[in-house]
Amino acid sequence: MPQPNTLAKIRQEIDYNLKDWQKIMNAKSFRQSFENGMSQEDRLSRPPKGYDKENPAAEYLQLKSFVVIRALSDADIVSKDFVKNAAKHFGNAKPMMSFLKT
After folding, report:
1. What is the mean pLDDT of residues 32-57?
2. pLDDT of 102 strictly over 80
3. Which conformational region is residue 42 in: left (phi greater than 0), alpha (psi within -120 to 50 degrees), or beta?
4. How many Cα atoms occupy the beta-carbon half-sphere of 33 within 13 Å?
5. Residue 81: is its pLDDT beyond 80?
6. What separation in angstroms does the CA of 67 have from each of 38, 42, 74, 86?
7. Which residues contact 79 (CB under 8 A, 6 or more apart)?
8. Comparing C-alpha atoms, which of 16, 37, 36, 41 is closest to residue 96?
9. pLDDT band at residue 5, thresholds of 50, 70 and 90?
10. Which value, to the nearest 10 degrees, does the dihedral of the CA atoms of residues 99, 15, 64, 1 take?
């Protein structure tokens, strides 16, 4: 959960670059790794101050944190391919992390 000033910058980047953000969120590899998309925990009930509820980026602007989760079964964890699969999923999250760091 970013500090308020960092969160404001992330929201501004998402608002200004919504098409780039949506491309990351909708990428086939991202969706395969994180089929539930972004965590909705602690989501605001409406867009933050300064953003209109009709803003096309509103669903993302309401987020207070930027977390993706992949559920793993016991079989996934003990699989001989665990490290390879984990690296693949982390790699699929990299475009999102790179966007958030800018």
Report:
1. 92
2. no
3. left
4. 23
5. yes
6. 6, 11, 22, 16
7. 85
8. 37
9. very high
10. 30
Tokens of residue 12, six digits: 């501004």
Closest-CA residue to 8 (of 50, 38, 53): 50
pLDDT at 38 over 90: no
Tokens of 99: 């966007």
Give residue 90's pLDDT: 95
Give me 26's structure tokens.
């909708």
d(CA 43, CA 89): 24
Taking only Cα atoms into account, the Rg of the chain, rounded to an integer number of angstroms, comes to 15
